[in-house]
Amino acid sequence: MSNNKEGLEKYRWDLVNCERCSMCKWVHPWSVKNKKTAKICPSNQMYKFDAYSAQGRFDLARALLEGEIEITDKVLEVIYTCTLCGGCDVTCKFTRDMEPLEIFHELRKYVVKEGKGPLPGHMPAVESIQKNDNPWQQPKTRRGNWARKLKVKDITKEKAEVLYFAGCTYSYNADLQKVAQATLRVLQKAGVDVGILGNKERCCASPALKVGVEDTFKEIASDNIKTFNELGVKTVITSCSGCYGIFQGHYPELGERNYEVYQAMQYLDKLLKEGKLEFKNRIDMKVTWHDPCHLGRGGEPQDLWEGTRIKWGLSDPPRRRNYGSKGVYDEPRNVLKAIPGIELVEMDRIREFSWCCGAGGGVRSAYPEFAMFSARERIEEAKATGAEAIVSSCPWCESNLSDAIKADGNKIKMLSLVELVEQAL
Ligand code: SF4
Ligand code: SF4
Questions:
Q1: Residue 83 Cα, ligand 1 centroid: separation in angstroms?
Q2: What is the pLDDT of residues 77-111, one digit of tens each?
Q3: At what angle do helices 264-273 and 417-424 cross, to 10 degrees?
């Protein structure tokens, strides 16, 4: 067996013991609200065949492991038409103690090691991360420009208790820089001693890991951990749910961290509870909250675990099941509900059963029509609530949902929660 299959080999038990129960395609039966919103897997909803679900990808991974099939273009398509949203990971655990998300990561790493992945559509982002420390083909020298007009500490020159990590998209995207700017102003208004890395901030490297380019991820992520530790900060705050998910879910494997990580909405909830922020202005608006996958299911704290499967598929040492229910769900809702005048109405699929915006896992760059399909389904679900706006806190969700709203001439707005927070202060 080629060494490249070692990662998949670790999951052999899962691959041969999938029950074909199909739970991975559906919201858990107790939480289904409506026939139209009963599915949880965007890939299966779009492409219809079982291959495009966790169940099918398990079969495919097993066949690759056994050498029964080759890595063809079709196999690559099945592997990469998955947003890595984790919906299946949560629902599969209600039946079997399986690890779909870990297997999908291993599948991608395997095809990259075999020289077949990632896809051409992923390459501009991967190469740009390797060259420019961001996936957007932008020079490093412009990374800190979003903060040019703000008075903020350069943490590489001046000590601060808290590091605000803007992330690549909030740093470079002209339409979304306002989110990083507003977050910083709100933190400063609450008296937080905060600094930024400016041009020295590097990509969290999540987009590289998501398409299977593990070496690049490990190099950059390890360097980021070293930087954060050496700064001596107690806290790292990021507005990007993608960065948050990777900081919480994958960085701990790479080294000890001397700091805590917060997504900005978690931190604002904490500041509200401590009385350091107070809303004075009313915003009369009916809104719905979209749970970003990497903040919700992906934001559940992970236990580091090394071990093996033993008889009956039990884990040795025992491993905690990750149901996704302990992700960051309440904090952004608490912030929204604290704003005078805001009425929060919920969609059918929320919290660990939330529907993905469609942008994750390299799908937006390689399969834009699939990304739009998933976004459109979420927008229809949001519209059914009667909300005037979808509110979220993730640059991927915000840009994908926003593009789909504009493409179809929808009236519903896409807002970042921090915009409402700043307006209400
Ligand atoms: S829920 Fe899990 S066990 Fe059931 S079909 Fe899907 S992957 Fe297999
Ligand atoms: S991660 Fe999401 S898109 Fe991929 S198979 Fe699971 S539910 Fe479907």
A1: 17
A2: 999 999 999 999 999 998 888 999 999 999 999 99
A3: 30
